[in-house]
Amino acid sequence: MKSVFARRLAPVALVAAFALPGGQPAAAADGIVLPAGTGCEFNLGYAPTGGKLHTQEFKDANGNVVRSITAGKGVVITYTNYGYNKKRPVAGKSVTIRTDGSVTETVTNPDGTQTITATGHNGLIMFPSDVPAGPSTVHYIGQLVYNIDPTTGVFTFVSSTGSQRDICAELK
Question: Is the pLDDT of residue 67 over 50?
Fold first, then answer.
């Protein structure tokens, strides 16, 4: 069974959900370390700092959240290559991205899935269980659309416009 926790990625706090088989990621200074093969082929550190994010929720007549919007700016994200040793990750090359803001809209669909439309600076980590299958970590500047099935934790990439940065390739 997969354990699922919020994969809110920068600033950017992208609304998503890391679906990690068998446990939580290790802690890294003010962030997390994802096991090798999850976000990149190596252990990947993700540490967001700073920023101001605001979320507004919209509810239906029954009080269920059907849409939310998160907006903000000023988050600094550091991605770090922690090597391949899962038991003793050692920090190596890092990439730090100063984000200039983002807006993320999450819509809950009638079938319970969610459609996320994110504009501005946003990171997305795709796991091997996602569509398309990861591991991959990409930082987007522009618009990004993907779906999440909260029952399975599977993310399905829909589209993107603008520029993208392959974080795993930069950290090799």
Answer: yes
